[in-house]
Design brief:
The structure is a homodimer of 440-residue chains.
Chain A (H helix, E strand, L loop, with lengths): L1 E5 L3 H13 L4 E5 L12 H5 L14 H7 L2 E3 L4 E5 L4 E4 L3 E4 L2 E4 L3 E3 L12 E2 L4 H12 L3 E5 L3 H12 L3 E6 L11 H13 L3 E4 L3 E7 L1 E7 L2 E4 L2 E4 L3 E3 L2 H5 L10 E2 L11 E3 L4 E4 L6 E2 L4 H15 L13 E5 L2 E7 L2 H6 L5 E8 L10 E8 L6 E8 L3 H14 L3 H5 L15 H11 L2
Parallel strand pairs in A: 1-2, 1-7, 2-3, 7-19, 9-16, 10-11, 10-16, 11-12, 18-20
Antiparallel strand pairs in A: 4-5, 5-6, 8-17, 13-14, 14-15, 20-21, 22-23, 23-26, 24-25, 25-26
């Protein structure tokens, strides 16, 4: 049994490990265009921001450790084509390679900034660790940076650039950061923190060209020109599927590979996992893509298990997410008011501001929770949060609450830990639910 | 309508506020033997430990603010008797006071250390803020302290005493700290931290007498004498119900007042809330007492609402709890292996050690989660945790999971936030559930 994996990110490595776990005798080969596997790209912005002292810390395992697991990783190796009929790959520099089962984990790219000058040097897509190491040196002598679109990576990179004293200019056609998933009232403290840090926020503005002599030095926008040493691309993720498309595999409305619950594509010998796929949203049933490393890893394990002859299913997603943006943690589950409204999903809302520890305990931080419920049934369908701590754990809880259909009444009567150093008398999730009920 | 409340803790104040909310015209009178209401007794150990710089921080509101709410609080006022037939109270110094509805929120006491010398000076029961202010001065000149029983307050006080450089000797007949609710593997890091801090832990030992000339100076135990400047009582809570017992109200097996879901006692005009009551455990149906301030407050709101003519129900409890013990947070839900075994409750167990952030992110801490499930159905019935952060939020989640009957399969496939600064790739709750399934 020969199992080929295209991609060495969380999905690809998860798939390779799971396949080897199910069938230790299988030949498992991972092709990656990257120089490394088993590092955490999600940590890159925090090294730039000097919260983490070295890129070396982001590596999870050495290449030798991978060899020891019996997984054959081909670094800096590009797959040029998939032939599903002959079950072969065209591998650059190696020629034809056959497979019995294939897992595509080809990941994502930043949505292109489709303007003149997009090929100039000095435009940084935060993604690969070796490139990040080079960019980090360059940031030392950088005075100013334009961040194009305030998506997820921008939330982290603006904080990082501010830490380093680099003047930030955010240019985004949307009206506030991460406008596709975050409600404006929730993200307001982050916007305020950026303003306090001197970030020049140009909402409702759009880049029209990058200019410079070899390297970018000026960003032209609809509202005027901006001198800038570098550009950070913060656009949303798009599935990286030219190979799959050329092979005739079915892609969905998002450009992601369509898969069943076993992560099997339209070809029974080919599985897919991670950001190159699309997955149904558990509430709206709409296919979505661009999830997290945790999702990619779980999908990879599912794909790899099934590719090797085992059985594992992946469920629709409710998407708990969160991140640190400067001093604030923000996060959510499923959708907020903005997205629910855009999707035409009826909802009622309850909101509460609380605190994370006893009011008098050192380190206490504010936390705001907003809950969305289905009218009538009052089942939870989404949440948005901002606070100083405890966002990840609450998002995990609320994602499960949405999945199993908990109602606002149930959340309103939840028990909560009260102990001065770790939790306040009133849990803001419960108070938001009580407020929702009171407002009906 | 005249509503009397006996007790000015979280339950009594919650009841008074809720009653006034339902019926603003009601006369609401709170009798408290204490000098103050509206402070957080739970914060006292952390002021002793100097994490909080002043006892003044623990006050939530001034006496004037209470007057403004229309609640008549009688401080340092003892109720000597309840006559349910005439609906009157015998109030020390005031004579007879009538009521239409009564809420008993008379709280708890430390279980008596029933040995000779228990009335000596120098034996500290951590409970009242004015007393704590005096004790805090005394701790400045204190060299050593014997902690009798390593219950909840001991978990916090040992850390506080260590912070202040006071030699601690723990004498407890149990084999480890909080042995009634915590499993030994879970509490081990705390025990180790105490050992590292030089705490003299005498498990399986029992105090036989306190000796001294007016003030305690020596503690006699089954295993020998200990010289000590003060004694901290860390015994478990017992309901404070001599008044209710004398009035003929029904008490349960724990000594707590039996109440229905409206917090009504055996007398239809009398409600009760907080540590003087007992509440059915949601899994075992066994009545339990000695819950948290959050429980007391919610019960008080229920009792006060119903006393004033409203309708509010309180549910069986699943008891999420947690606290900070030095550098560790410990907590749980429902029961652990030790208590489940003692109660004869069949269970299967899964455990995982994880981390709270990405391995490379500053402030990352270990976290251990142990889950107990019912054999067969695999419904979650309890949890135990120790870690550096995120214990409170996980306990809240798992308490709801037990309440609504989530299974280990559901937890094994939960989604989780992954973002380096706030959450690791793998959520330990999920891994513990996966490990439980793998071990079946």
């Amino acid at each position: 049994m020969r199992i080929a994996v295209i991609g060495g990110g969380a999905a690809g490595i998860g798939a390779a490990g799971a396949a080897k776990g199910v069938d230790p005798d299988a030949d498992v080969v991972v092709y990656t265009a990257d120089t490394d596997v088993a590092y955490s790209p999600c940590g890159i912005p925090y090294v730039h921001g000097k919260e983490i002292d070295s890129f070396d810390r982001l590596f999870l395992a050495t290449k030798e450790q991978y060899v020891a697991t019996g997984i054959d990783v081909r670094y800096e190796t590009t797959v040029d084509a998939i032939d599903p009929r002959s079950r072969t790959l065209a591998v650059a520099g190696e020629g034809e390679a056959s497979y019995d089962r294939l897992v595509i984990a080809s990941g994502w790219n930043y949505a292109a900034v489709d303007v003149p000058g997009a090929d100039l040097d000095g435009i940084y897509e935060v993604k690969y660790i070796r490139e990040a190491m080079e960019w980090d040196k360059r940031l030392d002598s950088c005075q100013s940076a334009v961040v194009v679109d305030a998506g997820l990576v921008a939330m982290e990179m603006v904080a990082a650039l501010c830490h380093r004293g680099i003047k930030c200019i955010v240019v985004d056609p949307a009206p506030w950061p991460m406008a596709d998933v975050l409600d404006p009232d929730i993200v307001e403290p982050v916007r305020q923190a950026w303003e306090d840090a001197g970030v020049d926020m140009q909402w409702g503005n759009r880049v029209t060209a990058f200019r410079g002599d070899g390297s970018v030095s000026r960003v032209e926008t609809q509202q005027g020109d901006i001198e800038s040493d570098i550009v950070i691309v913060g656009t949303h993720k798009v599935p990286n599927n030219p190979l799959a498309a050329a092979a005739g595999l079915e892609l969905g409305s998002t450009g992601g590979l369509t898969v069943d619950s076993r992560m099997q594509t339209s070809d029974p010998n080919i599985y897919a996992a991670g950001d190159c796929t699309e997955i149904p949203h558990g509430v709206s049933d709409i296919p979505i893509q661009g999830l997290t490393g945790s999702h990619a890893y779980a999908q990879g394990k599912t794909a790899g298990t099934n590719a090797a002859g085992g059985t594992r299913h992946y469920r629709p997603v409710f998407v708990p997410w969160g991140l640190l943006a400067g001093e604030w943690m923000i996060g959510g589950v499923s959708f907020g008011e903005t997205l629910a409204t855009a999707l035409g999903i009826q909802h009622v809302v309850g909101k509460a501001q609380g605190i994370t520890r006893a009011r008098y305990y050192p380190g206490v931080r504010p936390i705001t929770v907003k809950l969305l419920a289905e009218p009538g049934s009052l089942r939870l369908i989404g949440a948005q949060m901002i606070g100083g701590e405890g966002i990840k754990e609450r998002a995990d809880f609320l994602a499960m609450a949405v999945r199993v259909g908990l109602t606002v009444e149930e959340l309103a009567t939840m028990e909560n830990v009260y102990s001065p150093a770790i939790g306040a008398l009133n849990e803001p999730i419960s108070v938001a639910a009580q407020n929702l009920l009171a407002g009906l």
